[in-house]
Amino acid sequence: MLSEEDTLFPPDNRAKLLQQCAMELLVLTAEAAMVIIIMRRQKEAEIVAARERRRMKRQRRVWVKQWLLRRVRFGQYEQLMVELGAEDQSSFKNVLRMEPDILREILQCVSHRIQKKDTFFRKALEPGLKLAITLRYLATGNSYKSLQYSFRVAHNTICKFIPEICQAIINEYTAEVMICPTTPEAWKEVAKGFKTAWNFPHCVGAIDGKHIAIRKPIQGVSYYYNYKGFFSTVLLAVVDADYKFLYVDIGANGAGSGAGIFNDTDLKRALEDGRIGLPPPEPLPNDNQPIGYFLVGDDAFALKPWMMKPLPPRNMTVGQRIYNYRLSRVRRVVENA
Prior knowledge:
Blueprint: H1 4-8, H2 11-57, H3 66-69, H4 71-74, H5 76-87, H6 89-96, H7 100-114, H8 127-140, H9 144-151, H10 155-177, H11 184-198, E1 203-213, E2 232-239, E3 245-253, H12 258-263, H13 266-273, E4 282-283, E5 290-291, E6 294-296, E7 307-308, H14 318-336
């Protein structure tokens, strides 16, 4: 006995109907998804267009603010620094951390790298002004806005030329002032300085790392968060007895330790391979046992034939205490540099 439903929809027709409904539902779903995607893209396009319209509407009200144009009459570089250079050179040094003669010498060396051409719209900033702003920024860490009001140069201009001036100084002076010794005779001169100044023979450099605070990066946050509780990059340096830098490694992430950063440097590989040119071992004064030449570092560095570090502070003899005392004096050179 067939039911009314079986009479209206026989089994064969019912299967075909279900299949057709499923296909139609699938098509409708795909169409709905496509409509959603199209609507979303249209919405994004409208947002972009609205942003572009707002950007086009934001026209400059003035080409340059009038108080910036009075820089020659009231600017710090044109007025105050001229007075300090002529009347009070100690205060001039306090402003830029150097004497006027040294500033002029640096300006003479880098001016050809930082000089810009005048245009029909405006005159280029003087190289001396840009150098003074850069040195003041490096000396104090003042914000661009603060430098804007003292030197009467727009902050969005300062933020563009400070990296250029820094790179120009690096390109000009790296080969001249930062020379890492490569011969036994040059290393012996460095060791002579440590023996004379700090009574620590056979030392060819003090090594340490310095955390340079930076803003929180957008990516890789954990790589730059150091154990001191702020974001930083690391400056690893080797310094001689006169506080002069012999070698630097700049830009390592702040989460790394000084020893870990040192392990990835060319200096470490050169020391291990013997390519650095250290003198052969020689006896210390009033001794006959040959001792190699070495760097000095803190507890974070591994003890090596070419790396000396403090002894553990427990149960030390008088001689060991004297050794730790003299080594800590030598390490202060790099910390103060």
